[in-house]
Amino acid sequence: MPIYIYGMGDGAVKIMSVMEKYGIKIKGIFASDEFVRGHSFAGFKVKTLSQVESEEEDFIIVLAFAAGYRELYDKIFSIAKRHTVLAPDVPVVDFCGEVFDLEYVNANEEKIAKAYSLLCDEKSKQTFSDIINYKISGKIEYLDSCTTPKEEVYTDIIKPKEDEIYIDLGAYKGDTIEEFLSFTSGKYKEIFALEPDFKNCSKLIKSVDRMENVTVINAAAWEKDTTLFFAAKAGRQSSVSKNGKETPARSVDSVLCKKPCTILKMDVEGAEKEALTGAYATIKNYKPKLMVSLYHRNEDIFSLPILINSINPEYRFYLRHQLYLPAWETNLYCI
């Protein structure tokens, strides 16, 4: 059956490179109608879906972009009623062609089993299984079956109070601070927000300008205080990079100076391991509730729970996936 890539850009390039490695040939590329203007991509004339459907009796669609909002998500699942739609799992950072396939699972079987054993409720275990099955197969129905509204995370797991000391690593423009405050009636004790991208940080400062007891730090989260090279993209996928701009980096333990925090959130584009290491004393001594992204690197889904457990074995672990294709917005919550 012919294979068509749906989408253009970096995701398509990564997916096509892996397909070439495995000798998988594609027949063409299509995009949403509003993006098709007679141009080409990777040597293919970009078509519309309706054009492909008029030319092919049936075909396999390989999704090459992320869908993180309901309208687009529903559109993709509507297409999946007519054609097989696969969404290959591609790590957000440091993609070197390593595929999360059965061979990868077998090579990390003990670690995967260890991470699974740490999960403390059936929903977490089913989510973990669905995410692993999705990563191996690319079948989007696995993600749909384990999707949980973000509101449930706050109301059922995190349960924030009105006197929290909240640390936001990768605070972006302040959206996750706003999200957190929506569940505390706007009340808190203190907030620390780290954002390495200068443009994002400027917008973050404006968003909290009238708030008291908020410390904004233009720095990356890391295992120690240092200087890193940071690829600033003025978006959510800015990350540590050898070719980036010199940027200050701070550890949570240094920022807090042996003081406690009660909730620690991190979405730091692949630097979660280093950020957790830099929060070692805080996690060990004060046991803040943790909200940790598990999708930037292949190994995150099993290596980060194991790391947290090694720092403080008293935590209970919950895994949830919010609406997103591919398996981004898969997060670990530790209480």
Question: How would you characterize the overall build of this protein?
Answer:
- The chain is an alpha/beta fold and 335 residues long.
- Among the domains are: 1-88, NAD(P)-binding Rossmann-like Domain (Rossmann fold, 3-Layer(aba) Sandwich), CATH 3.40.50; 150-293, Rossmann fold, CATH 3.40.50.
- It has helices at 10-21, 49-55, 70-79, 102-107, 109-118, 122-137, 140-145, 150-158, 175-181, 198-207, 252-256, 272-277, 280-286, 300-311; strands at residues 3-6, 28-31, 40-41, 44-48, 60-63, 84-86, 165-169, 190-194, 214-217, 220-221, 226-231, 239-240, 245-250, 263-266, 289-293, 317-321, 330-334.
- The strands form three sheets. The protein has a seven-stranded mixed beta sheet, with helices on both faces. The chain has a six-stranded mixed beta sheet with strand order 3-4-2-1-5-6. A four-stranded mixed beta sheet has the order 10-13-11-12.
- Strand 8 (190-194), helix 10 (198-207) and strand 9 form a beta-alpha-beta unit.
- It is globular.
